[in-house]
Amino acid sequence: MQGLRNLLLSAINRVGQAIPKRFQRRIAYFPGILAVFEYLSSYDLVEISTPEGGTIVINPLFHSNLTHSCDLGGYEPEIRKIIWKFTKPGMVAYDIGANVGVFSFLFASIVGEDGMV
What we know:
- With 117 residues, the chain is mainly α.
- It has one domain (2-111).
- The protein is built from 6 helices and 2 strands.
- A two-stranded antiparallel sheet has the order 1-2.
- Strand 1 and strand 2 (55-58) form a beta hairpin.
- The longest helix is centred in the N-terminal third of the chain and has 17 residues, at 2-18.
- The protein is elongated.
């Protein structure tokens, strides 16, 4: 039964990635659909460590791109370089559209105790 459930979740994820974002949102707002997806995947939460020492808990159904990249230090390397270049200790950093917060941990490690994210 677990194998069938994993196969179903994998298929839902692949189909979801192929659908344009604007349609994904329409499907997600359909009454009850998110509750069903969350119920199907609720026991599969994954903890991923950030290079900055934090831990992010994600639902792989909604964030499969993160579960496949076990090393978040290699996640979006161009954006990470820009953040390192322009963010300084003590600054206030805004992680707009933070999603699960991968870059929030990076900002926090750079701005330090005197800064704010």
